[in-house]
Amino acid sequence: MSTVYDFSAKSITGEEISLERYRGKVLLIVNVASRCGFTPQYKGLENIYEKYRDQGFEILGFPCNQFGNQEPGSEEEIKTFCETNYNVKFPLFAKIEVNGENAHPLYKFLTKAKPGILGTEAIKWNFTKFLIDRKGIPVKRYAPQERPEDLTEDIEKLLATKE
Question: Which string of b and e fits 71-84 if b means at least 16 CB within 10 Å?
């Protein structure tokens, strides 16, 4: 069975990163955008990252421009925007596609493992979230409108399991 550890992605600064680096951590993987109605969720994401990161929690942000051209900037512009406006410290990756033929392999895996409503695999919008357990297995998918702070109970449950 595949896990998220089988994938790698380019960081926002261009470094190839194996997700193996996050083995044993609880992960929240999110497709993000700078010009979206949900963009203020960066604040909530950063808050839960700060609250739980010392317990083995990581957020991985994947900018995507597939929804309403809401992430048109370069990686450098995205990084600067996130740091300046939301003090984002969690890892950000290079811009990817999350749907279609050119979807990043990680997102093909996530959407197949945890389809959305009515079994659809497609990501509907920015800030769709996937919660991953310490073994690298996707356990839950959240709709864009679900606020990061509303996920704390699920995150705490996974953090309480040491394996």
Answer: bebebeebbebbee
